[in-house]
Amino acid sequence: MGRRRPDEASVRAHAVRAKIVFYIFFCCALFIGVRLYIVQVRDGPALAARAYEQRLATVNFPAHRGAIFDREGTLLVRSLPSQSVYATTGELGPVQASARALASALHGTSYAALLDALQSHAPYAQIAHKISHDEADAIARLDLPGISVVPEPTGVRFVPSGRLAASVIGFTGFDENGLDGVEYSFDGVLRGTPGRMVLETDEFGRALPFAQPRVVIAAKAGHSIALTIDSYLQYEVQDILRQTVAQWHAESGCALVLDPETGEILALANVPDYDVRDYARYPADSRRDRVVMDAYEPGSTFKLITAAAALDSGKVTPRDRFPARDELHVAGSTIHNAEDGFLAGTGSSETLEDIIAYSHNVGAAEVGMRIGGATMYEMMRRFGFGASTEVGLPGENPGILPPLADWSATSLPTMSFGHGVAVTPLALARAYAAIANGGLLLRPRILSAIIDSDGSEIYRYDREIERRVMSPKTAAILRGYLRAVVLRGTGNPTARVAGYTTAGKTGTAQVAENGVYVPGEYVASFVGFVPAQSARYVILVKISKPRGAIYGSVVAAPAFARIARVAMLHAGVFPTAARLVRLERPSKRNL
Q1: H or E stretch covering 310
Q2: Contact between 499 and 575 (Cβ < 8 Å)
Q3: Count of CB atoms within 10 A of residue 237's CB?
Q4: Residue 93 CB partners (closer than 8 Å, separation 6+)
Q5: HEC profile for 544-586?
Q6: Residue 365 CA to chain centroid, in angstroms?
Q7: E-strand stretches of 45-123
Q8: Are the CB atoms for 555 and 549 separated by under 8 Å?
Q9: pLDDT tens, 268-300?
Q10: Which SS3 state, helix, strand or coil, does residue 79 take?
Q11: Nearest to 244 by CA among 235, 254, 234
């Protein structure tokens, strides 16, 4: 039998099916071609732009933060460009070798942490953030495959001397936001105006490290500031204070140098202190600015406020005499002098100068009761006690000055010698500055000038007189009393400085905690100025909870004398031979 020949109908059916299949594929191809044309040619640029925009994120980036200088233009703080390390995981060489090499360049980052980061499943991994310039150079020299150092939008603060004026300068956070000190107080000035830029991101919203950002609005750099701080004097004051606290095994201490004619703070020191460059390692107590934050009972240094009220009101004259006695009974309470029976050089009666020179609590209480509570309260308010000085440092304590209506029968006599009232070292120092400058209360200043990013001066601060608190005559009499303290009173001879004239007042007060005096705990202080007339510097030294001695004349006055000598020599004022005095043997002192 021969092979069966297909019939004509079957052939035609196959032909029809083939044509149908052909046309179907043709139509599909045509549709795809048309769609490709639409997507790739006609709408291609628009779709590509839309896809690009979907990968974009608009972010704010900070401006370059301004620098901080001292009064002479010496750099204290500036911002340096910062960099971060990224890994392109698909391009890495041997992971363990890379982690080991990176560990040698990145100080403080362990091999285990680096190995874990390099083994990330993400296409890009951040290895380190805000590394130092030296670390960035070291990584670049390694030339590791898949490892790149990328600039960061925010910088890192560079502090040449980490402990110098640390409590004044303060520190910034991770994104250069001010957190303490003038970095916090003047953050708005230093920070500048942020800019805006567009970044390409991955599907998780993370910035692609190698994509070029597009700046929409340029950032405006922050202004720099010049402080009133004198770096040399600041260093010396810190060193002297540190030695004094160590010598007396004290819990803490603070010191302040003020210009009485301008209100400028030339040096402000605290012990314990901290290194700004590594502030997180230190406890909060080490970062505390005790000069503005800690209010304490000033003790006998406050007797000058009583004397000012007495003299300026006319209710007491320099010639008036008060009974010289060791104790005074008031409303069932007994007030004693610091050392019973010690009434050196006064006889049966004493003047206001004697009371100040020998620091008699009983005499000060009698003066206070003679002038009355209203006069005393008015003078304390005129000196600014109980209110903030608005110096421009964060956390300032206004102190404690109870309203006159809340005073008890013993409030006036005890406040007259510095108990029952609390002041900060800064508030007390500016009160003594008013005595030194002839009776003007000045607003203390830490800021000297604001400087533009191009180095030009935008604004310079001048002295700000708040008010006159006493007559020039009263101030002159009080300066004489403070000079007597050093020549024949409780400051003799520890507050003397050979070749210069000094004036000041010792203070010793019990430590009050939670409204109760702590047995055996004292604050020793000395506040005064140099020279005694036409003073250039007001100096305060306060030592908390010293061991081995408690009196301001023993603990704090020698530190005052050392600072006074350093300050005068630094000012170019050398000791005068005519002023060289023989330091007498220390007299018995009560404060």
Answers
A1: helix 303-313
A2: yes
A3: 27
A4: 144, 145, 146
A5: ECCCCCCCHHHHCHHHHHHHHHHHHHHCCCCCCHHHCCCCCCC
A6: 38
A7: 56-61, 68-69, 75-80, 83-88
A8: yes
A9: 999 999 999 889 899 999 999 999 999 999 999
A10: strand
A11: 254
pLDDT tens string 187-216: 999 988 877 767 666 665 556 666 666 666
CB 553 within 8 Å of CB 299: no
Please name the amino acid found at residue 247: Q
Beta bridge partners of 527: 505, 540
Tally of CB atoms within 10 A around 306? 28
For 389-535, list the strands marked E by DSSP.
440-442, 447-451, 457-460, 465-468, 503-513, 516-530
483 contact partners, CB below 8 Å, separation of at least 6:
501, 502, 503, 532
Helix (H) or strand (E) holding 538: strand 537-544
Mean pLDDT of the chain: 87
224-227 and 516-530 as β-strands: parallel, antiparallel, unpaired? unpaired
Domains of the chain: 83-132 (no CATH), 231-579 (3.40.710.10)
Q: Cα(109)–Cα(132) distance, rounded to whole angstroms?
A: 13
**How would you class 152 by CB atoms within 10 Å of its CB: exposed for 0-12, middle for 13-18, buried for 19 or more?**
middle
Cβ burial, residue 570 (10 Å; 0-12/13-18/19+): middle
Q: State the burial class of residue 36 (Cβ atoms within 10 Å of its Cβ: 0-12, 13-18, 19+).
A: exposed
Whether the predicted pLDDT of 311 surpasses 70: yes
Q: Which residue do the tokens 């100068």 mark?
A: 353
* Distance of alpha carbon 535 from alpha carbon 568, whole angstroms: 11
**DSSP letters of 393-441?**
-TT----B---GGG--TTHHHHHTTT-S-BB-HHHHHHHHHHHHHTSEE
Residue 348 phi, psi dihedral angles, 5° rounding: -85, -10
Q: How far apart are the first and last CA of the chain?
A: 143
Burial letters 226-235, b for 16+ CB under 10 A, else e: bbbbbbbbbb
Q: 179: how many CB neighbours lie within 10 A of its CB?
A: 15
pLDDT at 343 over 60: no
Gap between the Cα atoms of 307 and 304, Å rounded: 5
Element spanning 188, H or E: helix 187-191
| Residue 41 DSSP symbol | I
56 alpha-carbon distance from chain centroid: 40
Q: What CA–CA distance (Å, rounded) separates 302 from 230?
A: 28
pLDDT tens sequence across 152-170: 766 678 888 889 999 999 9
* Tokens standing for residue 153: 């939008």
Whether residue 551 contacts residue 508, with contact meaning beta carbons closer than 8 Å, is answered with: yes
What confidence score (pLDDT) does residue 2 get?
54
Grade residue 57 by pLDDT with cuts at 50, 70 and 90: low
Dump pLDDT digits (tens) for 412-434.
999 999 999 999 999 999 999 99
| Element of type H or E holding 269 | strand 265-271
Residue 24 in tokens: 């179907």
Burial of 311 (0-12, 13-18, 19+ CB in 10 A): buried
